[in-house]
Amino acid sequence: MTYIRETCGCCDCEKHCGALDIVFVIDSSESVGMTNFTLEKNFVINTINRMGSMASDPTSPTGTRVGVVQFSHEGTFEAIRLDDPSIDSMSSFKTAVKNLQWIAGGTFTPSALKFAYDNLIRDSKRARANVSVVVVTDGRFDPRDDDSKLRYLCNDPNVVVNAIGVGDMFDKEHDSETLVSIACDNKNRITEMKRYSDLVADNFIQKMETVLCPDPVIKCPDLPCKTELDVAPCVGRPVELVFLLDGSERLGMENFGHARHFVQMVANALTMARNRNDQNGARLALTEFGNENENQVAFLLTHDQKAITSGLSGLHYLDASSAVGPAIFKAIDEILGKGPTRKTRRGAEVSFVFITDGVTNITNLDKAASAMASEHIFSTVIATGSDVDEEALTKLVMGDQTAIFKSQTFSDVLQPSFFDRFIRWVC
């Protein structure tokens, strides 16, 4: 989108990649780990975000279609199909990817590649479409699987395979020989990295954008840029959005006021659930954090605009030190709940949004991040200023740099360009 703005000076321009079918094959085995599997899903979403407009009709001869196969041991493969009629927009694709659950079994990579071709590509590929497959794996697979299937995609000369090898959760490096076979002996189509967090690094996403869509066509309307969202956000699925607001002395009273106003703007912009059990729309919650024992909940998960407004107006600035780790545990226990006391809706997408000046005590932050991953929580950070703790912010978003929204001042987050980008991200 940066390229589009620089070319046309307008955020409403569209990028077109022609007739393009992309299939991601991602490892969902036990050795990957839940946090890394979440990073794989974020990699898929962030990459497709760069691909421009998707085909509104899966049978259309033009436009981009995307499929995903997640694999573990035999019989556990799951797919988002290229020709799925319900995948007709970025929003619907994003929801489908986020709904994929970590399988945590064995690793049948060769069979997964055969499954991807037989079930997603062979009978549904379009005559004029370029077909690209992106395989993310640690390179190892169960010896009971048939290794000859590693080259299964190579049997079709019209399919381009890109293999990404990543070290696993046990810090074991990927198997390079396996990657060579997957990529049909084309070493230019192989990327090797040590950590799954490298998948979502902005420079790598840009690289994948160029690999998958090397010659984009940018189309700009003969109209001024719009400042309003085209569609009502967070529609068609349950979204639980929990704000964790920094009440530290470093933040300052004025910025604290801007942050509260930002949350109110979010509540006004989203399509809220109609009641506590509605399986569509958003519900919000907010907790303010200071030092380790100083947290206050402004309002629990609610769809009620009056409760949100009242909670925000009654929220007092703590003017304390900052310790985000305890706030995360408190939010999980008191706002989300666990087991029979779980307060989120069935199948809801749960997101934590941290609003901070970028500096916080990192005690127990690793454990807190692991707790978010185990609860299937997506995290986003809004941080201001240039003096921020990059390591802490990276841990809060579990390595996904694209989930960090930065601005110079808190007043900037209230501007339409920043605000609309945030709304599109969380929805």
UniProtKB/TrEMBL annotation:
A GO CC term attached to the entry: collagen trimer
Record carries keyword Chloroplast: no
**Which UniProt keyword terms apply here?**
Collagen, Signal
Q: Please list every transmembrane segment annotated in the UniProt record, as residue ranges.
A: none
Protein known as: Collagen type VI alpha 2 chain
* Similarity section: Belongs to the type VI collagen family.
Q: Does the keyword Glycoprotein apply?
A: no
Tell me the organism's taxonomic lineage.
Answer: Eukaryota, Metazoa, Chordata, Craniata, Vertebrata
What role is this protein assigned?
Collagen VI acts as a cell-binding protein.
UniProt cross-references to Gene3D superfamilies, sorted A to Z: von Willebrand factor, type A domain (3.40.50.410)
Residue ranges of every copy of the VWFA domain listed in the record: 21-208, 240-422
| Molecular function via GO | extracellular matrix structural constituent conferring tensile strength
The record's annotation in InterPro entries points to: Collagen-VI/PIF, VWF_A, vWFA_dom_sf
Q: Which CDD domains match?
A: vWFA (cd00198)
Listed PROSITE patterns: VWFA
